[in-house]
Every structure is written in structure tokens, then in C-alpha cells.
């Protein structure tokens, strides 16, 4: 018994309504504080980045996924393991370009927007769930992958589905395991 | 089935009021306004007793020759008033209760919208469509 067993996923449940209402209150307060939609989107992304850099440690500890060898594997893990673990949904993954570094996560059900019917007047370019983009971006950066994450389509803005686009940029840190002689 | 549906705030101003035959809208507004007195009377008559689900429904407030007015008050003193056609005798108490329950559920969904400020007029599409479904004549 030399190796400790992997940490069992302990799901401390909270009420989903409480979480959704808390997120809604956060976005509503940001809308009151900042007049421009771009500012609100930027701050949501920054907050998400802070969450993502911390959340990825918890995710890697709980999920025990192995090393990924390709961008599409990474996106699959984000969709099928991470989203399932934290939000309880499993978005579908599509690859957008032939060089295999642009992917889309298509969410048919988004629990964060459960009570929001439509964006308020004058806030038509608000990305309500931009926190998610920041979280994904922060998490990927902690594993040394730079990525650009944005909303390509949003049901709240009238599109038919909600689509998050992940574009992988070049790796931040090249593997340098050879000792410098 | 319902001819007019109104949601009245705690301070007795309307958050939402809609009636189906739109010609005599003012008459329905007046009926709802007068029914508020009856609602207040019923609430104060309940005294300090614990309010549970059954007592949220106030029942028939007052009948007129053409219409009957029903009331329902929530624990946060938001009142729902419904005017139904007297000629529709098939409408039973249970159905009225279930209509009020649906109204209450839709109202809580509207309240949960983070962009809705309590006290604003209700402008939700989902709420509108729920009220429309209650108002469509089932002949």
C-alpha cells in the first residue's frame, strides 16, 4: 500500500437553484456596475480565469485522467468529464478546421441560464456565460496550453444552440526534460 | 376559461394585468381594483394563524351577474386575481386552484430572472404564454 489511492470524488451537493441564482446575481450586479457590455464580458472572463486556474487542480485530482496526446482528446475530456463533473451536462464536441486546433462545444442545455429568458434591452451583446470561457481558458493555461475561448453562438442572443469555440494556440512551455548540460 | 388575470404587488399596484376581450378592459381593471378590498378583508380575517398552502387560495371573492372573481395571495403578499365567466359553470374549485398554482409557479420563475427587479411590471414571454393558455376558450 505504498501509493495512496486516488482521491474518491466526494460530491458535496448544493442546491442547483442557489447556484444558478448566485450566478445570475453576479451578472446582474456587473451589469449595474459597468455600462458597456464589453466591460462586463471582460470582467466575467477575468473572474472565470481566476476560477479556472484553481479549479483545474481539483479536477485533475478527482478525475485521474491520463496524459492527453492531442487537442481533440483534451476537448473530449473537457466536454465529457469536466462539464459532467461540475455542471452535470455533457456538451458535444465538433472540430472546426482541418489543422485540428479549433473545436466547438455545443451545449443543448445550459443550467446557468435556466431562469433567464432573454437578455435585457440594451444588453444585446452581453455574453451571459462568459465565466465558463474564462474557466476553460484558465484551466488550459495551468496545464501549459494557450487557448482562445469565446462564445460562437448563444441561445440568449437568438441562435439555435449555445456554442463555445476553443482555439488552441501554440504550447506555452515546451517539454524540457533533458537536463541542461 | 379565465377572462382576466391580474398580479398585484404588495403595495397594491398592478404588476401584470391582462384581459381577453380587449374592448371592456377598463371594466375588468375596475373589478380587479374593487376586489382588492375583499382580499384585504380576507387576509386580516385570517389573523395571526399560520398560513399553509390551502389558505393561500382565497376562493370566490365576490360574484357579479356576468362574472366571478377569485383570489389567491402568496406569503409575500403578492395577490393573484382571476375573473372568470359565470356562464362557464363547468369550472370547478380544483381547476381554479390548479390555475392559481400554475400562476404562482410562473411568477416564481419570473422572480428568479436575475434581470428582473422586484416591483417592475412583468414582461416575460413565458409568463404571457402561460396566461394565454389559461385564457383560451376551451369550447
TrEMBL record, chain A:
Keywords noted in UniProt: Endoplasmic reticulum, ER-Golgi transport, Golgi apparatus, Lipoprotein, Palmitate, Transport
State its location(s): Endoplasmic reticulum; Golgi apparatus, cis-Golgi network
Q: Which GO terms describe its cellular component?
A: endoplasmic reticulum; Golgi apparatus; TRAPP complex
Per its UniProt record, what InterPro entries does this chain match?
Bet3, NO_sig/Golgi_transp_ligand-bd, TRAPP_component
Please list the GO biological process terms of this entry: Golgi vesicle transport
Q: Name one Pfam family in it.
A: TRAPP
Membrane-crossing segments per the record: none
Subunit text = Homodimer. Component of the multisubunit TRAPP (transport protein particle) complex, which includes at least TRAPPC2, TRAPPC2L, TRAPPC3, TRAPPC3L, TRAPPC4, TRAPPC5, TRAPPC8, TRAPPC9, TRAPPC10, TRAPPC11 and TRAPPC12.
The entry assigns this protein to a family as follows: Belongs to the TRAPP small subunits family. BET3 subfamily.
Relate the protein's function as given in its record: May play a role in vesicular transport from endoplasmic reticulum to Golgi.
Output this protein's name. Answer: Trafficking protein particle complex subunit
Q: What is the source species?
A: Myotis myotis
From TrEMBL, chain B:
Q: Which SUPFAM superfamilies match?
A: SNARE-like
Q: Which GO terms describe its biological process?
A: endoplasmic reticulum to Golgi vesicle-mediated transport
Q: Which locations, inside or outside the cell, does it occupy? A: Cytoplasm, Perinuclear region; Endoplasmic reticulum; Golgi apparatus
* Alphabetic keyword roster: Cytoplasm, Endoplasmic reticulum, ER-Golgi transport, Golgi apparatus, Transport
What residue stretch is flagged as signal peptide? Answer: none
Domain of life of the native organism: Eukaryota
Q: Name one Pfam family in it.
A: Sedlin_N
One GO cellular-component annotation of the UniProt record comes to: Golgi apparatus
Enumerate the PANTHER family for this protein.
TRAFFICKING PROTEIN PARTICLE COMPLEX SUBUNIT 2 (PTHR12403)
Q: Which family does it belong to?
A: Belongs to the TRAPP small subunits family. Sedlin subfamily.
Query: What name does UniProt use for this protein?
Result: Trafficking protein particle complex subunit 2-like protein
Which organism is this entry from? Myotis myotis (Greater mouse-eared bat)
Amino acid at each position: 500500500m505504498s501509493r495512496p489511492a486516488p482521491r474518491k470524488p466526494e460530491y458535496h451537493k448544493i442546491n442547483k437553484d442557489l447556484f444558478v441564482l448566485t450566478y445570475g446575481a453576479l451578472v446582474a450586479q456587473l451589469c449595474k456596475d459597468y455600462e458597456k457590455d464589453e466591460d462586463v464580458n471582460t470582467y466575467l472572463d477575468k473572474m472565470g480565469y481566476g476560477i479556472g486556474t484553481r479549479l483545474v487542480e481539483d479536477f485533475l485530482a478527482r478525475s485521474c485522467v491520463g496524459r492527453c496526446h492531442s487537442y481533440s482528446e483534451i476537448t473530449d475530456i473537457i466536454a465529457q468529464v469536466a462539464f459532467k463533473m461540475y455542471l452535470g451536462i455533457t456538451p458535444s464536441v465538433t472540430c472546426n478546421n482541418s489543422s485540428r486546433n479549433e473545436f466547438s462545444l455545443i451545449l443543448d442545455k445550459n443550467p446557468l441560464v435556466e431562469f433567464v429568458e432573454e437578455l435585457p434591452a440594451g444588453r444585446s451583446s452581453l455574453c451571459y456565460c462568459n465565466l465558463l470561457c474564462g474557466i476553460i481558458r484558465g484551466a488550459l493555461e495551468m496545464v501549459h496550453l494557450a487557448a482562445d475561448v469565446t462564445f460562437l453562438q448563444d441561445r440568449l442572443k437568438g441562435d439555435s444552440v449555445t456554442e463555445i469555440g476553443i482555439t488552441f494556440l501554440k504550447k506555452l512551455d515546451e517539454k524540457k526534460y533533458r537536463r541542461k548540460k | 376559461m379565465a377572462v382576466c388575470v391580474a398580479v398585484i404587488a404588495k403595495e397594491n399596484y398592478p404588476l401584470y394585468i391582462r384581459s381577453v376581450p380587449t374592448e371592456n378592459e377598463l371594466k375588468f381593471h375596475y373589478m380587479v381594483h374593487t376586489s382588492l378590498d375583499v382580499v384585504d378583508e380576507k387576509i386580516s380575517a385570517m389573523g395571526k394563524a399560520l398560513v399553509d398552502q390551502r389558505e393561500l387560495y382565497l376562493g370566490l371573492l365576490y360574484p357579479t351577474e356576468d362574472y366571478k372573481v377569485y383570489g389567491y395571495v402568496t406569503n409575500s403578499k403578492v395577490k393573484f386575481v382571476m375573473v372568470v365567466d359565470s356562464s362557464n359553470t363547468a369550472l370547478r374549485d380544483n381547476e381554479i386552484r390548479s390555475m392559481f398554482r400554475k400562476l404562482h409557479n410562473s411568477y416564481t420563475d419570473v422572480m428568479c430572472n436575475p434581470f428582473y427587479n422586484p416591483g417592475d411590471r412583468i414582461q416575460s414571454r413565458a409568463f404571457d404564454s402561460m396566461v394565454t393558455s389559461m385564457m383560451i376558450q376551451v369550447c
